Amino acid sequence: MAKILNFAHRGASAVCPENTMAAFRHSLTLGATGIETDVQMTRDGELVLIHDEELSRTTNGSGYVKDKTLAELEALDAGAWFGDGSFKGEKIPQLEDLLELLLDRDTVLNIELKNGVFLYPGMEEKVIAAVRAYGMSSRVVISSFNHYSLAYFKKLAPDLEIGILYMEGLYRPWEYAATVGAKALHAYHLAVLPEFVRDAAQSGVVYHPFTVNDPKRMEFLIDAGVAGIITDVPDVLAGLLARKGL
Ligand code: G3P
Ligand code: MG
């Protein structure tokens, strides 16, 4: 049985400010074997890692990511908002910073294209170029709630894996996945039933449910046969996998 991937959602986001280098680095010490991150594009076309389209929840800035230059974003603090303030000084990383961190490892990188609200034309091409430049083609899964973008991505880069992100109960999503060119379903975890996992496997499609923080729910999904789990607490998942001898 292939190892079940332990994706740290936005890095170790339960104990570090999400989508910062501190969160990514720490997740690796907690046993993550994969990292999930959200990518958006600046006004001057650079790829940055941040979840919200708007800056104020996780930085000391305001306004939209799409309206700022990279230099303007680099001047912001993306760590001070979290916990006791000890992460003050953390920055919004560029995608390249994370690719660099993963260079000499076997960690799988799940890059979520955050292009559901703003489409960020040209972002797919830039992500492909960055992934190729760092030799990560065989270690990435590109996901998005924007399935038009995913289908376009797959046309541009047929060798890169894509994962269909969705929230609700799609009917036979493994068949839908094939129409988009995906081999992975990144489903909201409550939309996953064991029989779906089994039927998807028959078509060569795997599940990577998100965002699962309850150990009981993790165990249910592991027993159902998912190929990976996206979690804010990779240490909890790593402990569970170890106890189960997986
Ligand atoms: O990729 C799984 C999950 O990150 C999707 O939702 O909003 O946390 O990016 P969100
Ligand atoms: Mg995400």
From TrEMBL:
It comes from Paenibacillus sophorae. InterPro entries: GP_PDE_dom, PLC-like_Pdiesterase_TIM-brl. PROSITE patterns: GP_PDE (PS51704). SUPFAM superfamilies: PLC-like phosphodiesterases. GO terms for molecular function: phosphoric diester hydrolase activity. This is Glycerophosphodiester phosphodiesterase. Residues 4-241 form the GP-PDE domain. Pfam families: GDPD (PF03009). It comes from the Bacteria. GO terms for biological process: lipid metabolic process. The lineage of its organism: Bacteria, Bacillati, Bacillota, Bacilli, Bacillales.
